[in-house]
TrEMBL record:
Family that this chain belongs to: Belongs to the pyridoxal phosphate-binding protein YggS/PROSC family.
Names of the cofactor(s): pyridoxal 5'-phosphate
Organism: Candidatus Photodesmus blepharonis
Pfam families linked: Ala_racemase_N
Cross-referenced HAMAP family: PLP_homeostasis (MF_02087)
Segments crossing the lipid bilayer: none
Name of the protein described by the UniProt record: Pyridoxal phosphate homeostasis protein
Keywords (A to Z) from UniProt: Pyridoxal phosphate
Annotated Alanine racemase N-terminal domain residues: 15-232
Residues found modified as N6-(pyridoxal phosphate)lysine: K36
Length: 235
């Protein structure tokens, strides 16, 4: 087993023990391996360690990776999640290549992803990115903007709304992390009440530095980069 595979194994066992510790159901938390800036070889290591779900932030580099795996490893049916900020001039590439998008934050982006989805592909599984910390410079919509976006997304045939995502302010304090994540959990519960017909089963929250608090607060999908692939030179 190489380092990446050891890291994945360790994180899965951390997830399992956190699920137990916090009374979460077994297998209720998925691991998304965030492979941005990392080469195809690193992703291949993870794939050979059993990893199926990958998160990418930058359109151009991710397209090359996705096309490589679709061409050479189609039988593995890897799932690709776009988790970076989306500019409207990049929606076509995202719509043509990704299975999931976590960062829907305005009507125009949702509409374009829907309109540009190629015929014959399954709907894109989408999450609304929420700003839970009321900082203006953070990405994501505020609570009062969510409902209009839900109404739009549910009217679009090529998008399937699955839940919410957030990236809270960076802090190393477990309790503060937990409070921030809990806001997203409460919002999702509110949405579930208001839209009982939707299957909102996904809360994308928790990264390398705060996964324990995220699991405690109800995360169903962790986005883990550094703890799997090592440190990055972020753009
Ligand atoms: C880079 C990134 C991650 C992974 O962060 P790590 O701290 O490396 O685990 C998760 N989510 C988003 C949106 C990211 O951009």
């Amino acid at each position: 087993m190489n380092n990446i595979q050891k890291n994945i194994k360790r994180i899965i066992s951390q997830i399992e023990s956190a699920q137990k510790k916090y009374g979460r159901a077994r297998n209720s938390v998925q691991l998304l391996a965030v492979s941005k800036t990392k080469p195809i070889e690193a992703i291949l290591d993870a794939v050979q360690g059993g990893q199926k779900f990958f998160g990418e932030n930058y359109v151009q580099e991710s397209i090359n990776k996705i096309q490589f795996f679709r061409k050479n490893y189609a039988n593995l049916s890897l799932k690709w999640h776009f988790i970076g900020p989306i500019q409207s001039n990049k929606t076509r590439h995202v719509s043509e290549n990704f299975d999931w998008v976590h960062t829907i934050n305005r009507a125009k982006i949702a509409q374009r992803l829907n309109d540009q989805r190629p015929v014959g592909m399954e709907p894109i599984q989408v999450l609304i990115q929420v700003n839970t910390c009321s900082e203006k410079n953070k990405f994501g919509v505020f609570e009062n903007e969510i409902f209009a976006l839900v109404d739009l997304i549910t009217s679009l045939p090529n998008l399937t709304l699955r839940g919410l995502m957030s990236i809270p302010a960076n802090t190393s304090d477990h309790q503060s992390q937990f409070i921030a994540f809990s806001k997203l959990t409460k919002l999702k519960n509110k949405l579930t009440k208001k839209y009982p017909q939707l299957e909102l089963d996904t809360l994308s929250m928790g990264m390398s530095g705060d996964m324990d608090a995220a699991i405690r607060a109800g995360s169903t999908m962790l986005r883990i980069g550094t703890s799997i692939f090592g440190t990055r030179n972020d753009k």
